[in-house]
Amino acid sequence: MNMHAKHTADAETVEESLAIQEAQSVHDSDTATAVAMQNTLLTPRFYTTDFDEMDAIDVSPVREDWDKLIAQMKSDPNKGHFKKNEDWDDIDWDGMEPELKKEFIDFLISSCTSEFSGCVLYKEMKRRGNNPDICELFGYMSRDEARHAGFINDALREAGIAVNLGFLTRAKKYTYFKPKFIYYATYLSEKIGYARYITIYRHLENHPDKRFHPIFKWFREWCNDEFSHGEAFALLMKSDPKLTSGINVWWIKFFLTAVYSTMWVRDHQRPAFHKALDVDISWYGQEVFRKTSEMSQQIFPITLDIDHPRWMRGLNAMERANVKIAEGKDQGGLMGKLKVWGNSARAGLAFVSLMSIPSIKHQVPESTWLEPAY
Ligand SMILES: [Fe+2]
Ligand SMILES: [Fe+2]
Question: Ligand 1 is a single-atom ion; what residues have CB below 5 A from it?
Answer without folding.
Answer: 115, 145, 148
